[in-house]
Amino acid sequence: MFDNEERPLYEIKANLFKGLAHPYRIRVLEILAGAQELSVSDMISATGLEASHLSQHLSVLRRYGLVVSERRASVVYYRLAFPQVAELLQVARCLLSELLQDSQRHQTSALSLPAIATAE
Fold first, then answer.
1. Of 79, 95, 86, 80, nearest to 115 (Cα)?
2. Tens digits of per-residue pLDDT, 103-116?
3. Contact 76, 39 (CB under 8 A)
4. Looking at the domain assignment, is residue 117 inside a domain?
């Protein structure tokens, strides 16, 4: 399969996908992809999640290195840890479109998802 030296690299890669393995976490990343940074209250408004649920998802995203946070006074701001996260989301969106090609109902739903804007 793979040797012991390769195993940690595959585990790190698997953890990346664990961080992506929830619809709300993907949505949070999509929202962050369109901004330099956002406060927790901005993300609560954008997602409709309760603060405690958003906090849990942000904790997972931080643990797997997908987002970073910065506290300024009493406000915590989040941003993508790497610009490639936005690129990954865009590639995933394209792949989703291809996978749903045979299902017009799903295709229409996928096309109606909010845009992923990348911060420049």
1. 86
2. 666 667 777 888 88
3. yes
4. no
Task: Determine, yes or no, domain membership for 12.
Answer: yes
Sign of CA dihedral 60, 63, 66, 72: positive
Residue appearing with tokens 């664990």: 18
Work out how many domains the chain is built from and give that number: 1
pLDDT score at 65: 94
Predicted structure pTM score: 0.79
Question: Quick one: tokens of 66?
Answer: 């997908």
Torsion sign, CA atoms 82, 83, 89, 95: negative
Q: Are 32 and 81 in contact (CB under 8 A)?
A: no
The reply to whether 69 falls in a domain is: yes
Find out whether 32 and 78 touch, Cβ atoms under 8 Å: yes
Contact indicator for 97, 107 with CB cutoff of 8 Å = yes
Domain span holding position 74: 7-111
DSSP result, 46-64: HH---HHHHHHHHHHHHHT
Residue 36, CA atoms < 13 Å, CB-side half-sphere: 2
